[in-house]
Amino acid sequence: MFLSSLRNKMGWMVDEMGKVSAMAQELKSPITSAEMLINSDHVLYMMIEHNSSPHFVIVGILKMGWKKLCLYNKAVGSCKETMVYCLMDFYIHESRQHKGYGKYLIDYMLRDMHLCAKNLAIEKPTKNLLQFMWKHFQLSKLVNQGNYFIIYEEFFDDTFNERSCNNYIGNGSLVSACTCQSSILGQPEIQTHRKTTGEIAQENAMYSELYYNPGINYVENQIKEVNAFQNVQQDRNPAKRDQIFHQNYLIQNMLNDNSI
Questions:
Q1: Distance between the two ends of the chain, CA-based, in angstroms?
Q2: Could you say which DSSP state residue 135 is in?
Q3: In 74-178, which ranges are E strands?
Q4: Domain that holds residue 156
Q5: How are strands ordered across the β-sheet holding 43-50?
Q6: Cis omega (within 30 of 0) for bond into 54
Q7: Distances in Å between the alpha carbon of 24 and those of 17, 78, 94, 223, 225?
Q8: What CATH number should be reported for the domain holding residue 130?
Q9: pTM score of the predicted model
Q10: pLDDT tens digits, residue range 181-223?
Q11: Domains in the chain: how many in total?
Q12: What are the two backbone dihedrals, phi and then psi, of residue 81, each rounded to the nearest 5 degrees?
């Protein structure tokens, strides 16, 4: 009963964050959901903030996955089939944008996988994401692959193919557990044991605890109540208003649920 309730809550949180991410990117439908994760080998990183123990809210998601892509290297004019780690969905709550959260989440994933930003492929990147990659990683020279993915020219600078194979096994799963400890603005980071999405979400999955420090402070303060409707009347964009409402709805539901 407890595991079923836990899975339902996890699924709900993933679904809601996927919806908000889709609205922010002006997509017709979400590209991240619990069902999609169960039926794939993708990995979802979730960034959380604590209000007061045991409450927490999700402030960002990052969906990654391995893809076998035929990559075109325009420097030599040839194509090569390669397993590449792909960024598929990336979203930081509007109230936490431009405060270092996105960079921290990407950096955590890169350390987890022992990769550099230039080693990634990006699926259907938005203008904001391309600007983000330039601002934080100085990557701007795109090589369009003609298959909804882009890579950067720097991708071909080193022996990425050898490194990627070391982190990937034939069934698409990541088998090495990773326990990372890092810091942002001098604050300790959560230590987690990350399993494959299938292990966590399937009915026969073992219970995976989230260990955390209730006093954690990611940026400047613990999460504060956000007036999500501030200046809504001045915002004439209906899609934007829907996104703001959905963000506030998600936060309030997680804060009000005593069992989360």
A1: 15
A2: H
A3: 78-92, 121-123, 142-144, 149-152
A4: 2-256
A5: 43-50, 56-73, 78-92, 121-123, 149-152, 142-144
A6: yes
A7: 11, 36, 9, 21, 21
A8: 3.40.630.30
A9: 0.65
A10: 333 333 323 333 344 444 433 433 332 333 333 333 333 333 3
A11: 1
A12: -80, 125
